[in-house]
């Protein structure tokens, strides 16, 4: 259980970080990294537009929720909150059915446009567990933005096409997005339109990957392949079993000298997993580096945090 008394630290950290965010979306408290005793199941994200979203990942005692509501009330009377133009505080209960969201202050916008690295994305609030942008991948999208010029890019498990938006902004000649959730790809199309991108450069394939290798290969070869799968997706993907199926295909998908950004966000899977799997199933690809995670996602164990690994083809 979390500790109501520890919420003093929670609001102190938010107050220290929120002013530096400006209008950009940022994680401003990350208890999930286990760096704050008694606050391991709570996070907070500044969405800009005056909106602070708190998430709780495990049901707690009534005393904790009372202390949280009191703390929010006090925080919303602070000079920091006024200076950042704070309007709304919502709490998403990730542990409850439907990820129930309640409003503690102001009015919750059910849809909001946020800005990250100068690019805009539309998020949904109060509808589902994930709102449309994984904030821990901020530096991964920045890397793509900085390394996509004149490249043909394949974005696997594209979700709402955050990597694609970053790639087109970075000057990619072509991006192919693949995801079995067509509704997510539709939001991805909207994200590109929000940034006034030329959609002639972008393809959206609403297919299950392992049944669509022909379509994927037809659009290649690719200079950059991004693999950012879920850890587990019932009936379609189990990371520890199915990642190898993708890596085996890389030699026929990636051009000579091409890059692969391979990602894992399962705490119990170590960075060595990707290096070992690549060495076994696609030895043409040499490990270059692991990208840094955003500093706001501090973690007591870096091996448990998000793994974003850069490989390069060297035949």
Automatic annotation (TrEMBL):
The keyword S-adenosyl-L-methionine applies. One of its GO terms (biological process) is rRNA processing. The keyword Transferase applies. Keywords: Methyltransferase, rRNA processing, S-adenosyl-L-methionine, Transferase. Residues 26-311 form the S-adenosylmethionine-dependent methyltransferase domain. InterPro entries: SAM-dep_methyl-trfase, SAM-dependent_MTases_sf. Pfam families: Methyltrans_SAM. One of its GO terms (molecular function) is methyltransferase activity. This is Methyltransferase. It comes from Enterovibrio norvegicus FF-454.
